[in-house]
């Protein structure tokens, strides 16, 4: 089976990482895979190892093209759009370029009202299949845009799961961890500045609490007291999670929330909103703690203070989190995705 995937860029992000991991899996299954990226991305971001995708070990071909159209994209069985902008490019391709799949990882309304309307119009483009990464996203697409999709939840690699007999910390030194993600468009959905301010207030009240962050690029407004792990490898990231007791994600909304799942896989007690993967399998007070108002400083502080004061509760939530995500492995998700593509490619196309 020949598979084409269209990405808007290769800069390191959770969504890009998931898409590329799927491509590696398809290669392992015997597929002939090519990933297409517009050269314009390199002009906007600059030519770096990050923008060239050097951070990822790919088993497939990557082609940078002037534009994505019928002249630059090869004939194939399947062609996959990975964002709202690439869905327009895929929709305009000829049938011989492949059955059209829209891989929707988020409800991408982060921009101006005019651009957001263009985003929502993509949910009505002619596609052969739409795949959403969570039941919550599927319901949102259906409710707001009457857009039907199949759910394939993002999974975690089995190698990322911590051993069940893990023990977090010594109980005296508490570490709060947080992912740093840059804002997209005009949206403040990641809510990171707010999250940093919350943790600073917690540290003022608790001298035994320390703060660690990770991300693809260190923000300028962090104080020197904050430890930041920049653009980590998967191995370094696992080690980083192992030093974290409480993992706080201040995002107002998550399409899936890969860092949440990673933290749960390493036995951290997660505090976050009821969206993305936590809406899928999170049980408040059992395998995570869910915040109702993501812009309430008091609620965030009080919730994390409970975990700071109760080591037994932290460990109980962390162990339950690990048991939960063990059922959501990447291997299971990738197999589902592969089977859907095989079935789609075998169906007859009607002109």
Polypeptide structure, described:
This protein is an alpha/beta fold and 351 residues long. 37% of the residues lie in helices and 18% in strands. It is built from 12 helices and 13 strands. The protein has helices at residues 14-28, 40-45, 84-91, 113-121, 135-145, 192-205, 234-242, 258-265, 277-281, 297-309, 311-325, 330-346, and strands at residues 2-6, 32-38, 61-65, 78-81, 99-104, 129-132, 150-151, 174-180, 209-215, 227-230, 246-248, 269-273, 289-291. The strands form 2 sheets. Strands 3-2-1-4-5-6-7 form a 7-stranded parallel β-sheet, with helices on both faces. Helix 6 (192-205) crosses helix 10 (297-309). The longest helix is centred in the C-terminal third of the chain and has 17 residues, at 330-346. The two termini are 21 Å apart.
What is the number of strand segments? 13
Which strand-content bin applies to the residues? 15-25%
Secondary-structure element order, N to C: EHEHEEHEHEHEEHEEHEHEHEHHH
Give the neighbour order of strands across the main sheet: 3-2-1-4-5-6-7
Shape: globular
Main β sheet profile? 7 strands, parallel
Structural class: alpha/beta
Tally of contiguous helical segments? 12
CA-atom Rg in angstroms: 21 Å
Low-confidence stretches: none
The overall average pLDDT, rounded, is 92
Percent helix among the residues?
Answer: 25-40%
Q: How far is it from the N-terminal to the C-terminal residue, by CA?
A: 21 Å
